[in-house]
Design brief:
mainly alpha, Four Helix Bundle (Hemerythrin (Met), subunit A), about 240 residues, 3 strands, 2 domains, three-stranded antiparallel sheet, Arc Repressor Mutant, subunit A
Length: about 240
């Protein structure tokens, strides 16, 4: 019997794992490129994402680009229309208001689930993200501002340990809607820090009632602000 066979099998498995990891990394890099392009205004809602062009621009095959498109669809950033292609999801003010209502309840639930589970490491990460928000305000860095905001809420949602809730939260396109909030409606990093600091303090105290109320009101106040602004000029 060929004693080298187990080693050969192990080598094949390692090669397969390496190939899988390579594809996964490429897919994540393509997804990151597209999301950054949205933040930088290179892609706007309604723009078509051309698989061949992006693959050529990034120097990758079309496979990771196609997989990245699927990921972007899953989190609500892109939409594929049969026979026409994949597009950055379009929006209107009513969509954003509806998302605020959903996020208010989803993240209030996340707080309820997370308040007794959240770790010291999670709290340290939330503190770091508040510092990032301050830095974004100082640098007037939109990309940093959006990332810090999303990551702050993501830490809380992930700490809930509720996979269904996490998937629902991701599926409503949090990245795109946060970008729209801070770019189109000009919510400044300084304002975002002011809204997030009390939430963190309530979490540190394990004060469920206060934390839940703050995070729900965070979104409902933004919703009311949009309604007031756009009812005034007839855009809703």
């Amino acid at each position: 019997m060929d004693q080298s066979l187990p080693h050969l099998k192990k080598s094949i498995l390692n090669d397969e794992n390496a190939e899988y990891l390579k594809k996964h990394v490429l897919r994540e890099q393509v997804k990151e490129y597209i999301m950054n392009a949205i933040l930088e205004g290179k892609f706007a809602p309604g723009d078509r994402l051309v698989e061949t062009h992006i693959a050529k621009q990034l120097g990758v095959s079309q496979a990771p680009v196609r997989e990245a498109f699927r990921d972007l669809e899953r989190v609500g950033i892109a939409i594929t229309v049969p026979y026409y292609g994949t597009f950055i999801r379009e929006y209107n003010y009513k969509d954003l208001i509806d998302v605020y209502v959903i996020r208010a309840e989803l993240e209030a639930l996340a707080i309820r689930e997370a308040i007794s589970r959240i770790t010291i490491e999670d709290i340290k990460r939330l503190e770091e993200l508040l510092i990032e928000m301050h830095r974004a305000n100082f640098l007037q860095d939109l990309k940093l501002q959006v990332r810090a905001d999303i990551d702050f809420h993501n830490v809380i949602v992930e700490a809930s340990g509720n996979n269904i809730l996490i998937n629902l939260w991701e599926s409503i396109g949090v990245y795109l809607w946060t970008y729209l909030s801070v770019s189109v409606w000009k919510y400044k990093a300084k304002e975002l820090v002011g809204r997030h600091e009390p939430i963190l303090e309530a979490i540190k105290k394990r004060d469920l009632q206060e934390a839940e109320s703050l995070i729900r009101n965070h979104f409902l106040e933004l919703k009311k602000r949009l309604e007031d602004e756009h009812m005034a000029d007839g855009t809703l």
